[in-house]
Amino acid sequence: MTAPAVVLIGAPGSGKTTVGTLLAERLGVGFRDTDQDVEHGCGMSVAELVRLRGEAPFRELERIAVRTALDEHDGVLALGGGAVLDPSTQRLLAAHRVVHLSTDPATALARIGGAASRPLLADDPERGLRELFRVRGPLYRRLATLTVDSAGTPAQAALRLALALETTGAAT
Ligand SMILES: Nc1ncnc2c1ncn2[C@@H]1O[C@H](COP(=O)(O)OP(=O)(O)OP(=O)(O)O)[C@@H](O)[C@H]1O
Ligand SMILES: O=C(O)C1=C[C@@H](O)[C@@H](O)[C@H](O)C1
Ligand SMILES: [Mg+2]
Fold it and tell me: How is the cofactor bound (predicted)?
């Protein structure tokens, strides 16, 4: 039985994938991303899956991908932004080292750019992100053992994250 060195949670555009990849390089461990696992499993992008089949089938595949990755992966694991909404995922995360990579709605919007890659925000990305932060903010903070701001460049954020893990004795 193994466990990820760190599980990254946070809003879309907080940088879980980008910063997580850099953090894994710094720590010399592997990187895994549950959005990518779902994409490999179903042969299409998350955006296509949601557009073609709807959100519910995606969330079901995501729940399975998270459970599998928590069991198998021993490096840095990035979750999709909405994975934490699932109650069984919330329970599983309680046994792990979870870091909330934080940002604000305006920064997330600027990073995400057009909504094409995130159909769940397609109607009105600005309003959608504001609402998402309102609803999920407390959840991200509650599930995390550590919150680290992702401001600056991805490399700066990865360094900040590595130092925070070291300071709290949570690095591998
Ligand atoms: N300091 C920063 N931290 C993270 N990402 C940044 C930063 N500055 C710019 N970016 C850019 O923001 C974009 C979004 O980042 P990323 O896809 O890693 O977010 P995410 O948290 O994985 O989102 P999702 O939940 O949708 O998977 C990337 O194109 C990345 O290059
Ligand atoms: O925040 C969300 O609900 C999402 C974030 C992305 O990582 C993807 O998992 C998908 O676009 C949904
Ligand atoms: Mg991502």
Answer: Binds 1 Mg(2+) ion per subunit.
